[in-house]
Design a protein that fits this description.
With 243 residues, this protein is mostly helical. Helices cover 67% and strands 6% of the residues. The strands form two sheets. The protein has a three-stranded antiparallel β-sheet with strand order 1-2-3. The longest helix is centred in the N-terminal third of the chain and has 40 residues, at 35-74. InterPro entries: Znf_C2H2_type.
Length: 243
C-alpha cells in the first residue's frame, strides 16, 4: 500500500470519528435549557411552594383551633370565677349582711377551685401554679369591696405613721387594710383565712405559708395518688378472690 492510500484512509477514519462524536452528542447529551423552560420550571416550583405554604398554614390554623378549644375547656373554672367576682355589694350593708355575702362568695370560690372534685393527675409544679397569688388577689379585692360597703365603717388615722386604720364593726380589732380585711374573713366569716389549699382545704395567713404547706404535704401528690389506686385495686382483687 502506497503512501497516498494510507493518507486517504487516515482522513476517512478521522471523518468517521468526528461523525461518531457528533452523533453521540446529539443522541445522549441534554440540550441547554431555553429561557422558556427556565420560566416554566420556576413557575412550577413557585406553585409547589405555595401549595406547601398553604398546607402549613392550614396545619397551623388547625393546631391553633385545637389549642383554643383546650384553653376554653381549661378556662371554664376561670369563667365561673369571673362571674363570682362580678358580684358587687348593692348599696350599704349591715355587718351581718356583709358577712353572709362573703361566706357565700368564699364557699363558691373554694368549690370552684377544689382539686378534690377534679379527676386531674397534676405534678407538683402544676399544683403550685394552680395556687397562684393572682387567684387569691381577686378574693381579697372582693372582700374589700364588701367590707368597705358596711354602714358607718370607722376609719381611724394612725398617730404614729399617719396610716389609715380600720375599726372592726363587730369587735375591738383595729388594723391597717392589709390585716383588717383578712381579720374580717378569719374572725367573722366562718373562720376563713384568705389563702386556702385547694387539695385539703387548710387555711393560711400568707401565700408563702401556703406554698410551704404545699411543698411539705403535697410534693408527692402523684405518688400518693398511685398508692391510693393500687390500694383500691388490691381491695378489688381481695373481693374477687373471696367471691
Amino acid at each position: 500500500m502506497n503512501e497516498d492510500t494510507k493518507n486517504l484512509l487516515k482522513k476517512i477514519l478521522e471523518m468517521q470519528l468526528e461523525c461518531t462524536q457528533l452523533l453521540t452528542n446529539i443522541l445522549f447529551k441534554k440540550n441547554p435549557p431555553s429561557n422558556d423552560d427556565e420560566q416554566k420550571n420556576k413557575k412550577f416550583e413557585q406553585i409547589e411552594e405555595s401549595k406547601l405554604n398553604g398546607q402549613k398554614k392550614k396545619d397551623r390554623k388547625s393546631m391553633k383551633n385545637t389549642l383554643q378549644i383546650d384553653t376554653l375547656l381549661q378556662n371554664e373554672d376561670n369563667i365561673k370565677l369571673q362571674q363570682l367576682f362580678q358580684m358587687t355589694p348593692k348599696g350599704l350593708l349591715s355587718p351581718e349582711q356583709c358577712y353572709k355575702q362573703l361566706n357565700i362568695i368564699v364557699q363558691k370560690f373554694r368549690q370552684i377551685n377544689s382539686l378534690n372534685n377534679k379527676s386531674l393527675h397534676l405534678d407538683f409544679e402544676s399544683i403550685k401554679a394552680y395556687h397562684s397569688k393572682n387567684k387569691f388577689k381577686y378574693l381579697r379585692a372582693i372582700t374589700k369591696l364588701f367590707v368597705q360597703s358596711i354602714k358607718n365603717l370607722k376609719q381611724i388615722q394612725s398617730k404614729d405613721n399617719q396610716s389609715e386604720m380600720f375599726q372592726c364593726p363587730s369587735c375591738d380589732f383595729i388594723g391597717i387594710s392589709s390585716v383588717f380585711f383578712p381579720h374580717i374573713l378569719k374572725k367573722h366569716c366562718q373562720n376563713y383565712h384568705v389563702f386556702s389549699c385547694f387539695l385539703c382545704s387548710k387555711d393560711y395567713q400568707s401565700h408563702t405559708l401556703l406554698h410551704t404547706h404545699l411543698k411539705r404535704y403535697h410534693n408527692n401528690c402523684k405518688k400518693n395518688q398511685q398508692q391510693e389506686i393500687n390500694a383500691q385495686l388490691q381491695q378489688i382483687d381481695d373481693l374477687s378472690i373471696s367471691l
